[in-house]
Amino acid sequence: MSEARDIALVDELRALPEETSWVEFKNNNTDPDVIGKRCSALSNSARIEGRDCAYVLWGINDSSHDIVGTDFNPDAKKANGQVLQLWLANCLQPSIAFSFRVVNHPQGRVVLLEIPAATGTPVAFNSISFIRIGSATPKLTDFPERYQQLIERMQPYRWEQLIARQYATGDDVLALLDYSQYFRLTKQPLPDNRAGIFDRLEADRLIVRDVGERWNITNLGAILFATRLSDFEASLARKGVRFVAYGGNNRAAAVTYRHDGQKGYAAGFEGLVGYLNDLLPKNEHIGAALREAHPLFPELAIRELVANALIHQDMTVTGAGPQIELFNDRIEITNPGRSLVKLDRMIDLPPRSRNEALASLMRRMGMCEEQGSGLDKVFTAVEVFQLPPPLLRADENSMQVVLYAPRSFAEMTQDERVRACYFHAVLKFLSGDKMKNASLCARLGIDPKNAAQATGVINKALNAGLIRIADPDHPRAGYVPHWA
Fold first, then answer.
1. Which residues, other chains included, contact 219 with Cβ-Cβ below 8 Å and sequence gap of 6+?
2. What band does 281 get if pLDDT is binned at 50, 70 and 90?
3. What is the model's pTM?
4. C-beta of residue 195 within 8 angstroms of C-beta of residue 213
């Protein structure tokens, strides 16, 4: 934390007309119990007021807000034989990440206590939650309407709202973020002045106001529109998309291409998808007069699966980001974090995203399909191309989708045939229809004269419990997914 910012913060807080429910000024009152109660009360009140932090400042007159200086030394202060900060951490539930900072202001020594606003649960001191009302610090439970207001305003943890770059100048913001791409992708005219640019970026929470006429760039702003992700902390820079192409069917093969994404997801998305499509193998077909090259994988599927990997990753997993690996016979797209939806229900159930603001803005910019329709279109495109069914797999720390190059029915494994049958039944059900032997023949490229092959696949899917007969009294009516 820079001293210049702390000085600007002190001056901004002093400029308030009076103490608020989230700011308190003190001369030298350093009673530990008073500080503990204030931490609880100010943290809870800050959340009600929509503030990210609350503050206590020592060395400032609470009437005039003049700096009078203080000899309070939080590092030397003891409480019940313990260092004050350790004692406070043990007495506050949950243990919030407060911080004491000495500010050497030009007008005198100030001690600043920064207290994060309550998030998941009200902050309590010695098991009692307090609230700030005027200059009083009563128990939160004595004011049920404020307790209810606090519960309603507490938001779950959102990685997108955290700060990627603090106390940035306007010039820094314009250099660090590709703001022209933001206006182009959101289809807004580029304002002819800086204030208009900052107003729009702030409206979408890409930046938030800091003190001293500076700005904070949020994680959302950086991950979407960074000119260079490497300009930010390593933990964020590592979330750039990594692409590796191999000259064979496994990772032991020689690497033929490697690309580590440097731009934010939105700023670099079109370039990334174009780069992938240029590298993907193509099949040649003889048209009416000319040879025509068609991509081996549906472009829509690639685009949607890459966007899904960006949107649904767990941003809190450190040292990892989305990865795309291209082999001769498949493409694997991996993102950090286990899926929040069961793998066999990812087509029909609405998606659950850890990053709602990121997902919403990417959809607004047309980088992926409307909510809940993207994977439907991926699996539909796979059927149109008569590819083997995608493989969805997850472990404790990652989610992966594998898209396979074309293979005939004879070349597919038994598991792939059964998986294709299940997903075909799902797509039919979602369109208001039922899977039948004839439709599965078309899906798998089976000659209708060999319909018994499709019947064998259906029987295996029935035995695996993946599908069921739609109407037991009329077996010819078709099949639906097991959950339908």
1. 159, 160, 161, 162, 163, 164, 236, 315
2. confident
3. 0.84
4. no
pLDDT recorded at residue 291: 47
Instruction: Look at residue 285 in the predicted model and tell me its pLDDT.
Output: 46
Highest mean pLDDT among 147-161, 169-183, 358-372: 169-183
Whether the predicted pLDDT of 370 surpasses 70: no
- Separation of alpha carbons 295 and 279, rounded Å: 10
Structure tokens at 361: 């803005």
- How many CB atoms neighbour CB 259 within 10 A? 17
Span 3-156: which CATH code? 3.30.950
Task: Report the pLDDT value the prediction gives residue 277, as an integer from 0 to 100.
Answer: 84
What pLDDT is stored for residue 289 in this prediction? 46
Alpha-carbon distance of 327 to 281, in angstroms, equals 10
SS (H, E, C) the chain: CCHHHHHHHHHHHHCCCCCECCEEEECCCCCHHHHHHHHHHHHHHHHHCCCCEEEEEECECCCCCCECCCCCCCCCCEECCEEHHHHHHHHEECCCCCEEEEEEECCEEEEEEEEECCCCCCCEECCEEECCECCECCEHHHCHHHHHHHHHHCCCCCHHHCEEEEEECHHHHHHHECHHHHHHHCCCCCCCCHHHHHHHHHHCCCEEECCCCCEEEEHHHHHHHECCHHHCCHHHHCCCCEEEEECCCCCCCCEEEEEECCCCHHHHHHHHHHHHHHHCCEEEEECCCCEEEEECCCHHHHHHHHHHHHHHCCCCCCCCCCEEEECCCEEEEEEECCCCCCHHHCCCCCCCCCCHHHHHHHHHCCCCCCCCCHHHHHHHHHHHCCCCCCEEEECCCEEEEEEECCCCHHHCCHHHHHHHHHHHHHHHHHCCCCECHHHHHHHHCCCHHHHHHHHHHHHHHHHCCCEEECCCCCHHHCEEECCC
Structural domain spans, the chain? 3-156, 160-235, 242-404, 409-481
pLDDT tens by residue, 417-443: 999 999 999 999 999 999 999 999 999
Rounded CA gap, 210 and 239, in Å? 25
Q: Is the pLDDT of residue 376 over 90?
A: no
Question: What pLDDT, on a 0 to 100 scale, did the predictor assign at position 287?
Answer: 44
Residues 6+ apart with CB under 8 A from 307: 269, 362, 367, 368, 374
Architecture of domain 242-404: 2-Layer Sandwich (3.30)
Average pLDDT for the chain? 91
- Of residues 349 and 239, more confidence is placed in 239
Per residue in 19-50, pLDDT (tens digit) is 899 999 988 888 999 999 999 999 999 999 98
